[in-house]
Structures are given as C-alpha cells and as structure tokens.
Specification:
The protein is of the alpha+beta class.
C-alpha cells in the first residue's frame, strides 16, 4: 500500500473539502482518467485500480499515478464511548478535487486505454471520466 515514509505528526485534523474545480492537464501520457467529483480515495483503492489497469494493458505501455495518499484517517473502534482521545490511524487517503487527473497512460491504442481506465475507474469511489490529450500539429 502507498503511504508516506515520514511525517512530522502522525495524526491530523479532518480537512473540509471545498468544491473547487482544478484545471489539471495531461502532462505525461496521451490519455488520462480525470475526477468529476470531490472525495477521498484510500491507498487500497489506488492500488486496486492500478492493478486492474495493468491487467487490462497486459503490461504494455506506460502508466503514471498522479495522486498520492498523504492524509492520515483515524477511527475509533465500535462501541467505544465519547472522549478518551483521538482514534488510532486506520488508513491513508488522498484528497481529490474535481478536475484532478488520477491516472495517465501512454504507448497503447486509444481503445485499449479507454477500456483499461474504465476498468480501473470501477475500483474507485468517485465519478471519473476518460480524458484524451489533444495533439496540436504545427
């Protein structure tokens, strides 16, 4: 699973998500998976999506993961009374804003990339769409 190597503090405050649109453009690959919703994606979901995309691509092409889970999420056990401090670390999550590019692919046909990213999008907990880089011919 993905997680930061080192952090100054083990636990952090709960972040409030603002619905701010991010104009993120494809930098590495020719096609990408872009987030439509805001939300949190944990490291298990990122890894499951990566494996699903890799399986569809049959190890061809190149894959970039553009998000990293750097937010610690804590939870208390069930049936525990209020108080007595903050719960222990449960998992690491990535904060996603609308317009954020999650995965990018290059070196495979567009149809195969579309299928692979759709298959990987099924593993994520937010709505996404396929995004293709526009090639400018000079």
């Amino acid at each position: 699973m993905l997680s930061p190597k080192k952090r100054k503090y083990r636990k952090s405050f709960k972040l409030k998500q603002k619905n701010i649109l991010v104009y993120d453009t494809s930098v590495f690959g020719s096609c990408a998976l872009k987030a439509i919703d805001k939300g949190r994606i944990n490291s298990r979901q990122i890894e499951a999506a990566r494996r699903a995309i890799r399986r569809k691509l049959k190890r061809d092409g190149r894959l970039w993961i553009r998000i990293f889970p750097d937010i610690p999420v804590t939870s208390k056990p069930t049936e525990v009374r209020m108080g007595k401090g903050k719960g222990s670390l449960s998992y690491w999550a990535a904060q996603i804003k609308p317009g954020t590019i999650l995965f990018e692919i290059d070196g495979v046909p567009i149809e195969l990339a579309r299928q692979a990213l759709a298959y990987g999008a099924g593993k994520l907990s937010i709505k996404t769409k396929f995004f293709q880089k526009i090639q400018h011919i000079i």
